[in-house]
Every structure is written in C-alpha cells, then in structure tokens.
Design brief:
about 200 residues, alpha/beta, Rossmann fold, 6 helices, 6 strands
Length: about 200
C-alpha cells in the first residue's frame, strides 16, 4: 500500500466584508485562462510511484474562513489510512496547518510537515489579513511532538508573504529546517526540485 501526502493550497483572507469587496474592486482581471503548471503538479507526478496524493479544494478560497476549512479538512482526514502521512501547506495552507495542528489533537505521527511561505502575521499585509486564521504562534512548539521532520520554505523576495513570517515560525519551532531562497517570489513556479528531493530522500523514523 502506498504512503500518502496531503496538500493544502493557499487562499485569501480578510478582516471584514468591506475589505473583501475592496479587494474585488482593485484585483487584476485576467481574461485569458492560465495554462501554467504549478510545482505541486510536478511533485505529485514525481512521487506517484510511492505516494497517493490528496489535494482538497478548500471552500471559499477567495474569502477564506478557518472554521469552514477545518470542517472540510477533517472530512478528508477520514481517507488518511497512512499512519505517518506527509502534510504540505502553501501560503495560507501552511498557516492553516500550523493553527490546526497546534490547537487540535492529531492521532497519527506526521512523517514530514512542509510549510511553503506560511503567513503568521498581519504585519506587511495590506487588504489581506489573517482574520479567522489568526492564532497564538507561541503554541506551535507542540507540533514537534507529532512531526518527525518539519521543513519551512521561503524566498526573501516574496512580496505576498514577507520572509520574516518564516523567521517567526523558526523562533517558535527551532526544530524545523529552514530552506531560504533569493528569487522564488511566492513560489508561483512550475518546478520545485528541492522539495521533491527532500520528500523522496527523508528516511522514516
């Protein structure tokens, strides 16, 4: 039986409906559908021999609500048969995993937790805020008890989620490994070979 990896993608979150409406008024509109691959697709393809991937479409991603995400996430946990799965969260998805795992009991041992450009602070954000995803960052040290390997990935030129967010994570979770890049932005890229190498080469404890 294959092992499992669960991906939680990002989204937008706001403090109020007014901020969300303002965001809609100024957001860039692209009339040409994007035909661009995302690095997540590459990861899924490259590890498919050994891993089954679960990629939930989280509810209302344009105006995300933590409680709705929590309900939907827990519905998907019913399909996790692997006793040591991999969890991977990008942007707000990483924020969600940090909040959820630090506030709730999780019965399985997570073999790898990957957080790509997680946001844990409203500082430096304009209209988008953590809103219902806000949480006590000092409590994330609890995660080390249920994760064998924790990896944080961030680029210093990220204009969506400033790099200092991952520095906050590392301050409160020093057991994690921080992977720093200079030119990956918010990781809206087609290829991410570094994360594939880590996923494939970590030996289970």
């Amino acid at each position: 039986m294959k092992k499992q990896i669960l991906f939680i993608r990002g989204g937008e979150c706001f403090d109020s409906k007014e901020d969300f409406y303002r965001f809609l008024r100024i957001a860039e509109i692209n009339l040409i559908p994007e035909d661009k691959k995302h690095w997540r697709d590459e990861v899924i393809e490259k590890i498919s021999d050994n891993y089954d991937s679960i990629v939930p479409t989280m509810p209302v991603r344009e105006n995300s609500d933590y409680e709705a995400w929590k309900i939907w996430f827990e519905r998907h946990l019913e399909f996790i048969y692997d006793e040591s799965p991999i969890f991977l969260g990008t942007s707000l998805g990483g924020t969600f995993l940090l909040k959820y795992l630090s506030e709730n009991n999780f019965s399985k041992k997570i073999s790898q937790l990957h957080l790509v450009a997680p946001c844990v602070s409203d500082e430096g954000q304009e209209l988008e805020k953590l809103g219902s995803f806000n949480f006590d960052v000092s409590k994330i040290d609890r995660i080390k008890n249920i994760c064998n390997n924790i990896h944080v990935w961030h680029s210093k030129d990220d204009t969506n989620v400033p790099f200092f967010n991952s520095e906050i994570v590392m301050k409160n979770l020093p057991e994690a490994s921080l992977h720093i890049f200079a030119d990956r932005g918010h990781f809206n890229i087609e290829s991410f070979p570094e994360i594939i190498e880590v996923i494939k080469n970590i030996k289970e404890k």
